[in-house]
Amino acid sequence: MPDTILPAQLVELAEKVIIANRRAGRTVAVAESCTGGLVSAALTEIAGSSDVFEAGFITYSNDMKAELLKVSHDVLETFGAVSIATAWAMAQGALKKSHAHVSVAITGIAGPGGGSEQKPVGTVVFARADRGASPDKVVADMRHFENNGRGGVRLQAALCALELLLPDGP
């Protein structure tokens, strides 16, 4: 186990992701918003991760989601930053901006503020995009995590995103 300040369960899952994707001959990229680089940090805790982990994009603001990942302003204005449409566009953008075989995007509301009745704190949306997959095959999900503090929401979101990066994931 690497010497780390990250939670052990996060690093253990990241190690599984690196090993499984190395075995499958796949490279990965992530597009993070509410997790602020936590998934990228976990993946890079693993020695030898550079042969699997290709890129991490932290696009916290809507302007950067649009500029770096080419998320349409129309999508952001119509559906909001925390939506399946935005997460899907982020995942697609991460694939286009990298050479990775698979990407995962995470966008959500970690709290303590920023939530609404429709999207309370703990609402996080995930999307996975696979290079070469049919563009109409959307792999995305909205989850409602327990609001156990900002760090708790971010950790739950990072764990879920790592699960999506496993080759035999959903």
From TrEMBL:
Domain of life of the native organism: Bacteria
Protein name listed in UniProt: CinA family protein
Pfam family, one: CinA
Residues in CinA C-terminal domain copies: 12-166
NCBIfam families assigned: PncC_domain
Native species: Sphingobium olei
Alphabetical list of InterPro entries matching this protein: CinA-like_C, CinA_C
